[in-house]
Amino acid sequence: MTSGLFTGTLTLWAKALKGDRWLVLGWGVALAVLYWAQAWSIDRLYPGEGELARMAAAMERNQAMIALAGPARSLDTVGGQVTWQASAFGAVLLGLVVMVVVTRHTRAEEESGRDDLVRSAVVGRFAPPAAAVLSALVVSVFSGALVTLSLATYPLEVADSAALGVGLVLCGLCFTGTTLVAAQLVSSTRAARGIAGAVIAAAYALRAVGDVSVPALSWLSPIGWYQAMHPFSGLRWWPVLLLLAAGAANLALAGALLVRRDIGAGLVASRPGPARAGSALSGTVGLAWRLQRGGIIGWSVGLFLTGVAYGALGTEVEDLVGDSDLGLEMMTQGVPDLVDGFFATMLLMLALLTAGFATSSMLRPRSEEESGLAELVLSAPLARGRWLLSWTLVTVLATLLVLVVAGLGIGAGYAFVTADPVQAVSFVLPQLQHAPAVLLLAAVARLVHALAPRLASLAWAPLVVAVVVMFFGDLLDLPQWVRWLSPFDHLPLVPAEDASLAASAALLGVALAVGAAGQLAFRRRDIG
Question: Which parts pass through the membrane (predicted)?
Answer without folding.
Answer: 22-42, 82-102, 122-142, 162-183, 195-217, 237-259, 296-313, 338-358, 388-414, 459-481, 501-522
